[in-house]
Amino acid sequence: MSRLSCSTAFLLGLGFLAACQMTKPASSPTAGAPAAAPPAPVWQSAAYTVYRDSLVQGRHTARALSRQQLTSNYQSPANAFQSPQISFTFSLNGKDNEMAPGQDHQFLALPAAGGMALETPVIVFGQQHLDKRPVPANQYLAPNTPLTIRLDLRPLLAAFRKQGYYTLYNGQKLYEADFKHVFVAGNTAPLSWDFDNLINKPSLELKDPDGNGIYETTVVLNAHSDQKTTAGTWNASLDVSAFPQLTSDFPLLDALYNMALEEARRAVEPDGTFRTGQEWAGVWTRDISYSIILSQALLQPEVAKTSLLRKVTPEGRIIQDTGTGGAYPVSTDRIIWATAAWEIYLTTGDEEWLRQVYPIIRRTIEDDEQVAYDAQTHLVRGESSFLDWREQTYPKWMQPADIYQSENLGTNAAHYQGNIVLGLMAEKLGETAVARDAQTRAARIKQGINQHLWLDDRGYYGQFRYGRVHQQVSPKAEALGEALAVLFGVAEGSRPQTVVAHTPVMDYGVPCIYPQISGIPPYHNNAVWPFVQSYWGLAAAKVGNETAFLESLMAVARPAALFLTNKENFVASNGDFAGTQINSSNMLWSLSGALGLVYKGLFGMDFQADQLTFRPFVPQALAGTRRLTNLRYRGAVLDIEMTGFGQGYHRITLDGQPLPDGTIPATLTGAHTIRIELNNLPLAASSQNKVTHHVAPPTPAVRYAAGALAWPSVEGARAYQVLRNGQFAARTTESTYPVPGGQPFGEYQVVAIDAQGFESFASEPVVPEAARYTQVVEIETAAPRSAKAYRGYTGKGFVEVSKTLNRRLAVPVSVPTTGHYALDFRYANGNGPINTSNKCAIRTLRLGAQLLGTVVLPQRGVNEWSDWGYSNPIIVQLPRGKSVLTLTLAPANENMNGAVNEAILDQLRLVRVE
Description:
914 residues, alpha+beta, six-stranded antiparallel β-sheet, six-stranded mixed β-sheet, 17 helices, 23% helix
């Protein structure tokens, strides 16, 4: 017999020693003995298997050669077996505005005869092109396929010359002064459906160099350079001895722990702040906060402090990261900063730090209460926490003002905990009135979450409430929000266990949302984020779900081992890192999550204001001895040894003496030894809701005409549900629905339902006979006076509001009948793109002394002052006759820019809704 090569054995996933061992000769005393049994898996699924020293996924293997060295032969399959059928659409100014949703151009990118260059026909903007050729069986897109895409924009240019604007498919006018770029978006790299970021991909912009109205660009599809690999070796190279050191009976997990420690050190910039990721420079509020909560408050508290303070305005408010519509208050998850600041206090006991951050948190919540709290639902408005890429988690029709109006699970869980933290800080500082108010707000938010977002038939919380005048709940599961609801104590009674058992989980982990959104590439959609998986694992540990906790540990270990770094994310449906829109190595919250699962999961460290309690949770598959040495807690240095498995312990000692309740006081100083003997009792049976990849139906595009709602048939839909004012009205298999005339105000939406019962997002709200309920008040000066490139206002003009102009604006109104009205403003804000920057305009609306609500005027495009939209609707009761509304720039209306807080207002719309 010949020797088995190490490389062959490596690929087969055999043990390292066996892979490098020569077979005994026949004369050996052990000749003829049966071969050694293969090592038993620690954990196994249909997708991958984990052994003590290795991990195998198909033909890919990662192995711990020692606790200081990892190898992997992983190579991304992202470029293999791509269909030659290309779907694409054209985009003016980076918006999805060529054709109705679901109407895309199709082209079959097959090799051209005679080696000719591949190009599309000249496609007229707004006229769908469908390639009638059948897709050949077993035909895939060839690597490095150049494709020239050609577009006829002459109808648009002719409309500019004739009337100064072009009418888009949805009736919106694009004025010549606002026409800046034309891009192509699509389904095959380098094409992308991420409209908001097309401006950052110059190859996707079409040009007309000869001025004949035919625009074109050439893209290289399935580029060989896009193929990615992580095959190689990680060798420990940094001194991480100042951090807690882990050893266990599982070399692979120990090596991954050490790699995470190294990456934690690499994540510190020269200025003493955290770097978000290798490809993400700068300090991001939510990234550092979630990372600090997971483990960095314990490991690197001084860096954590410096990073948090970097995210505070000169006025002493928490900075909201840039995001949809110009950041705050469309995005409101900055409050997670408060929980991170509290975590630093819990691990350090630094009273000076507590006094420093307390007023920052208090001011921030006081502003948020005025600007973003919904008095009716007791929920907080704003974008999903961390899911801040509009098209990745929201229906395309939702504008930034709609996202502000929505109420998300994860963001509300963060605000609940932020108020809990403020209350605890206030109590310690003797501010009893502040503590009482914070506790009251927290209780209201908790009540609102459980009343308005809980889905009893699903066993978890809905993703968000959304709509316009009336809202309904998206039944998608949102993993981070579900985890936070359990960890922060929003879920009570049997709900925490129910949430962990029923939230959908896929083979490679818990997806950010489920089911996925049609036509949107992986990033938040169809993706697993290791830091979310870590929070999910900690939630599983809290409720004693061994199945979910063990699988979470493995779901975090798998990508780190195969990719040899803690990646930002990976595709949920295939586990690959290369298929998402953006990714980064050395990602701060990913590595922090891997460490947090050790400290807060396996060892069960529960940091409290005056003590540290150990609540370990070791799945039976991970039974053994593990040691964590040099753990620094306040004034103490702890060496911890833990043996066995289980959720409870048989015995726990401090320096050989029994440790009551597994708790050490915060006043402990010096070096100490803790020994934990687990009870080795099997845990109660547990389960998860394992699901396969599923894409929900596309969102219907609904119109009203001639007494009926109508919409194009939705691919994959078996039925449609019609909503009226957010409530069920009818179920139909047709693509029309007659609306009775003469009815009270009704806001209609349609949801597509597929054969498995999964729902699309609800369509954009439609109000039949809207003119019956609507009156318009012109907001104008005698003639427009502004340096901005504006067109398309109504009436005689508009009013510009800014930090210096019209800080208080009176708007007289007169209504014929007392009732409830939805008030919104037609406005333009060209101070930035929809997807980034920080110049959302904010104003407070009052009727006399009565506070009516906050008017949010988000960005709509860079220097696009003729792109008009509507603010969020505010539902108010108006008395019959004349009233005067006032729109003011209040102190709480400061945005994240500070200097620029402006928009131009065209008219006020009043819609009688009740």
